[in-house]
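BUG-225 | component: ligand-complex export | severity: low

The export step for 6-chloroguanine jobs runs without errors, but we want the raw record kept on the ticket for reference. Input record follows.
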Amino acid sequence: MRIDIITCLPKLLDSFFAHSILKRAIDKHLVEVIVHDLRDYSINKHRQVDDYAFGGGAGMVLMVEPIHKCITALKSERTYDTIIYTTPDGELFDQKKANRLSLMQNIMILCGHYKGVDERVREHLITDEISIGNYVLSGGELAAAVISDAVIRLIPGVLSDESSALSDSFQDDLLAPPVYTRPAEYNGWKVPQILLSGNTKEIEQWQLQQSIERTKMRRPGLLKD
Ligand code: 6GU
């Protein structure tokens, strides 16, 4: 998989991909993440990429030309399965969307910014618009990072135990059960006895039961039947 991210704040994203599971996935060549500085496609020597909104209103708007030039340059190299714009008025991101994106070869993400982008970008260049939740961030970079993280960890080989992505919260519309590690008792706080029993079948039943109860209590909206 290859993910191309277009942003005015490339440094913000570079550090995100330089650590932990995402760094390992990149080092193992399971995914390539290329961050592009929109200012490299500016139309003038001031590296300007935004301008005042026609009709007034607070905040600068990203101009259509630098974005068009950047996207056109990227599209001349490969075919994209999706060109995503991160925006609070996009479709809500969820595990199903992450699963779908994890099957793609080439993903492009344009990060939203302050007051938005010239609407012609959305009309003519973008194929999908994604929000990561019902709150407003100061830019789309964090959203691009969230989407990339959720997608990359689903690529086979990225997690050391491949089955662990499948047992995540949300993967089957159930929250994950509680987990414990040594010691079996700390400060008088005990690990549930069943987990120490060695009875795999009963442990799995207990975990499923816990998942269902947790989902009922905390996120009843996830339970369909
Ligand atoms: Cl994708 N962008 C911004 N700026 N705010 C958000 C968001 C995206 N998703 C939720 N809030």
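Assignee comment: Attached the raw record above. The domain at 167-224 is CATH 1.10.1270.20 (Trp Operon Repressor; Chain A).
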